[in-house]
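Continuing the batch. This is chain 6 of the set; chains 1 through 5 are on the previous pages. Same settings as before, nothing changed between runs. Recording input and output for traceability.
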Amino acid sequence: MLRNFLYEAIFIPEGVAPPDRSIIELPELAIYYDAFGEGTADICMVAEDEGEVVGAVWTRIMDDYGHVDDETPSLAISVLREYRKQGTGTQLLHEILMLLKESGYERVSLAVQKANYAVRMYKQAGFRTISENEEEYIMVCEL
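Output for chain 6:
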């Protein structure tokens, strides 16, 4: 399931062809799902519609694009296209932030492409930019 949602999470700018699904097998992307559930910060929540999983948010401590330190989980979130811009992602994000706080984590991080409309959602949820490069923001939310 995480493989599929990881592919759906790839931001594809308007007019750009999506990459082949095999991209998620690259080591820098496979770390988002390989052996998921074995780490203490491996947490996943899903949104369902009539029994179908339509969104997922998950965290783990990994050396990914949004890595800030070895105590801060990195977050990934994905909602199927037909369910986007309906509040599903916002609700998933809110729920996992509460769960992470209840679990004793002090903050969570992520990387997001600057052109991604989800940047607004992250800012509204309390994420702030701590660094950036040409394409991405690295953001942290203090819990």
